[in-house]
Amino acid sequence: MSQSQFAPPWQVSRWFNSAPLALADLRGRVVVVHAFQMLCPACAMQALPQMQRVQQLFPAERLTVIGLHTVFEHHEAQAPPALEAFLHEYRYSFPVGVDQHTDGDPLPLTMRTYAMQGTPTLLLIDAQGRLREQHFGVLDDMALGVALGELLGELDGCR
Amino acid sequence: MSQSQFAPPWQVSRWFNSAPLALADLRGRVVVVHAFQMLCPACAMQALPQMQRVQQLFPAERLTVIGLHTVFEHHEAQAPPALEAFLHEYRYSFPVGVDQHTDGDPLPLTMRTYAMQGTPTLLLIDAQGRLREQHFGVLDDMALGVALGELLGELDGCR
Amino acid sequence: MSQSQFAPPWQVSRWFNSAPLALADLRGRVVVVHAFQMLCPACAMQALPQMQRVQQLFPAERLTVIGLHTVFEHHEAQAPPALEAFLHEYRYSFPVGVDQHTDGDPLPLTMRTYAMQGTPTLLLIDAQGRLREQHFGVLDDMALGVALGELLGELDGCR
Amino acid sequence: MSQSQFAPPWQVSRWFNSAPLALADLRGRVVVVHAFQMLCPACAMQALPQMQRVQQLFPAERLTVIGLHTVFEHHEAQAPPALEAFLHEYRYSFPVGVDQHTDGDPLPLTMRTYAMQGTPTLLLIDAQGRLREQHFGVLDDMALGVALGELLGELDGCR
């Protein structure tokens, strides 16, 4: 991973499993953001279970996992009450923000800002707030682990 | 599997992926019914993919796979338009019936009739329309295969 | 599965996990024979674990699982003492026969008799001793379950 | 991972897939050593396939995977010709050294030097030749990836 731009702030209309969280508040931690839609099969069957494994491997003070619900289709079926039921049934306990919509645009704001191609999209943000990796699709566990290990190694003393 | 009662008819308010289907129309085939909820994790991650594997293994004239959406919680989030989006995203092509609700009862009619304990619930119905097995939870592939093989063996000539 | 020839007897030079077993002694049971080599990856990683799952699903009086060590390469490395160590380490407890060699022929006798193409090869023998299926490679669990269910259904009363 | 002692040299009587390799020759690379026995189920079914995934993820100039055949039981069945057949059948192409035995000791020399408790044992050695982690058993892919990412991050500039 190379030096990169600072990750732009996200715009979230509602949080689940957390009080409102700003990216700026998370300096000093590695931040893993997973942009997903609850009815996207690769999100539900692969990426979200993987995020749960990441969450279980690290204390949140060191590495924070965040879900971002970037709904760009099936808006009705994936509205916040449906998402709430989904998160409850799957017992996901990491913070999940609902990416904010503006009138007339099917794509939500943060998804536009990051120019995401679809879901799932993984964002890796280092302890200084720089966007170090953006990946459309699911990395396998080992490749994701390597990327996280590099960012955590920096956090532990080599910047 | 022992001799059993005839499977009671299902009561379905709407069909996806099919014209209305009555159990009586399916005599002469083995029928595998999978009662599920789209937001039930064991349904979405295990039972429905297994139903798809069953569907791919047999011609429908010999063995028909049917989904029954037995919503007993999160009624709003699992309403028919949400189910339609779910089936579309997961590319499930077997017939899915929406188990019918009556006013004021959170449990739908067919779920009550069969006294199902929850989702997923598997029903195996033989070519003569008898309910041969009802199982709450997910059978492993081999055990399900054995049960299907027994019913198909009967169909092929030994009753 | 169609009507078939009687399965020819196997020729075994040594048994592990069992006293000598003749196919003729197993009439009245479904018999699943898995021809393997201990150093064949698809055998060790897929077919033998599957045989163990089959063994655990049925009482031996109803369905008997048998391994047949059909060594046609690496004869030294796969000699009976090596097989014994292998079976011990993997905790396989079903009967395993060593397919008999004759001088100068790299292929063992039973492998020749059945014209097996390689390992793993699965043989399904019905309760009357007829060879009902011979399959080179690994079936998935559901397909194997279906084949076993058909043979068990016959055993239970429809012949 | 903390600062650590230098990894002691290994003592190998024979190499497969490579000319003789000394640990000292590998300075500047991350080195992953996997001590295994070919007839150990957790080695054959989990640890060696994982090593192959590691090998495929990185160029050897950056991260080198090495197998160490630490035979402490079934010496006959796991002798070098058997190992050669095993490596050939499984298509493992990373260097594998045979840990050297001395007369009368069932445990080989390198296994004793590192006080390994059994197989599989994973050794992670950094680019400066220090033993950074020794683990008896199999790490999951993500945890191993994190450990590798930390060592690779150091290699890339923060020591």
Tell me about this structure.
Four copies of one chain form a homotetramer. Chain A has 159 residues and is α/β, with parallel strands linked by helices. Helices cover 30% and strands 21% of the residues of chain A. The first copy, chain A, is built from four helices and six strands, in the order E-E-H-E-H-E-H-E-E-H. Chain A has helices at residues 41-57, 80-90, 109-113, 141-155; strands at 12-16, 30-36, 63-69, 96-99, 121-125, 131-136. Chain A has a six-stranded mixed sheet. Chain A is globular. The relative contact order of chain A is 0.25. The mean pLDDT of chain A is 95. At the B-C interface, helix 1 and helix 4 of B face helix 1 and helix 4 of C.
Euclidean distance between termini CA atoms of chain A: 13 Å
| Quaternary assembly | homotetramer
How many runs of DSSP E, i.e. beta strands of chain A? Answer: 6
- Arithmetic mean of pLDDT of chain A: 95
The gyration radius over C-alpha positions of chain A equals: 15 Å
Uncertain residue segments of chain A: none
The tally of helices of chain A reads 4
Percent of residues in beta strands of chain A: 15-25%
Helix/strand-derived category of chain A reads alpha/beta
**Portion in helices of chain A:** 25-40%
What is the spatial order of strands in the main beta sheet of chain A?
Answer: 1-4-3-2-5-6
Gross morphology of chain A: globular
Greatest interface by residues involved? A-D, 22 and 22 residues
SSE topology string of chain A:
EEHEHEHEEH
**What does the main sheet of chain A amount to?**
6 strands, mixed
